[in-house]
Design a protein that fits this description.
The protein has about 220 residues and is mainly alpha-helical. It has eight helices and no strands.
């Protein structure tokens, strides 16, 4: 039986799905640190300045979009972001572990974690050989991994493993575009084979866990 609004009377409530344009804007804002890194490669500006600038823009974008949303939709956005971020923790662990295992199994000369030190140096934490650069670079790596996962949650939490893999391969494309020249890599094929595996594992883990979190949320709301 339908009420005047066309809703089935007595039907379980389902969470509102924010409109795709709003989700895309919020998802893009979540990628602020990644955008800062790309801008650094393209423009040569200091990475820390770009990180701070894109972070401010990201916060502003979230504030503007959320203010325009209905409170019920706003709550769904927050839950989608939380689902993505939480799924990003094991996804990031799986990403790094898969790369380490592949390097060890193949005795590859590629050292993917050296990028952490390079990140730290770009952020102004001192020479890349130092512990401060390693710590800062690792923190930047974690922020990127969780931010990308949050973006996925906001936009595609309900899409599952294949969408997660597609997202991982999109991140892989960005990495392969800039990292080899930046790090001075010569064994490009080995680098790509290792990073592709890592991003597929990251995406599959993220997509699967985000979908499970979304379904659990829908079930709770509908109960």
């Amino acid at each position: 039986m339908l009420d005047e609004s066309g809703t089935t009377v007595g039907a379980p409530a389902r969470p509102h799905r924010p409109a795709l344009p709003a989700r895309l804007v919020l998802g893009a804002a979540c990628c602020a640190t990644g955008a800062a890194l790309v801008a650094h490669f393209l423009l040569g500006l200091p990475l820390m300045v770009l990180v701070l600038t894109t972070a401010v823009l990201a916060v502003a974008a979230w504030a503007v979009v959320l203010r325009r949303l209905d409170p019920a939709v706003r709550a769904v956005v927050a839950r989608r972001a939380r689902i993505g971020c939480l799924a990003g923790v094991p996804a990031l662990v799986a990403y790094d572990l898969s790369r380490w295992l592949l390097v060890e199994a193949t005795s590859s000369p590629i050292r993917p974690f050296e990028a952490w030190r390079a990140f730290g140096e770009l952020l102004g934490a001192g020479d890349r050989a130092g512990d401060a650069a390693l710590a800062a670079g690792f923190a930047f790596h974690v922020v990127n991994g969780l931010s990308f996962a949050t973006a996925f949650g906001v936009v595609l939490a309900h899409r599952g493993v294949l969408a997660g893999i597609a997202w991982g391969l999109l991140l892989e494309t960005a990495m392969v575009t800039f990292y080899p020249g930046w790090l001075g890599l010569k064994a490009l094929e080995e680098f790509v084979s290792i990073t592709v595996v890592g991003h597929v594992v990251y995406g599959a883990t993220l997509g699967g866990l985000a979908l499970r979190g979304w379904r659990r949320y829908v079930a709770d709301v509908s109960a």
